[in-house]
Amino acid sequence: ELKDHGQYEKAIEYYERFINHEDVWEEEKIRACINMAFCYRSLGNIEKEIETLIRSIQYDVPRPEVSCRMGDLYLERKLYDKAIMWYQFALMVDTSNIQGIVQKPYSTWYPYLQLCVCHWHKGDKELAVEYNKKAKEYRPNDPSVLYNEEFFKKYFEEQNNEK
Fold this sequence. Notes:
mainly alpha
């Protein structure tokens, strides 16, 4: 409630109490870390956001949502190799074994779309196209995927015309 109403400092305080309580299920601690990281982001404290996302990993393998959020943080900073690593982690997790809440986009189309962006910026155009195709398998009518397709088509046509 506190997080949803923008009372981030108070929410962080209660998430800390909750996480430190010994009778809390690990899945709930992971979710609390994810929510607390959101609060830190909303407050503009990126370092604490990272610290809290990493903290969730002490309870179990990184959740795809955590991995994608870490990837997003590095992508925002144009640290593409680090972002790629985190998006790859998101795709590696077997979500069928997760007992808690699973946000499907973070283990399907979203990391593929972000990998497309990272590889494009790194100069690996063909791999960017391949990742966009993988994202399209999950979301064939997604505006970002369709935009990328059109962008790639125009880009490669221009490249061929220049030759």
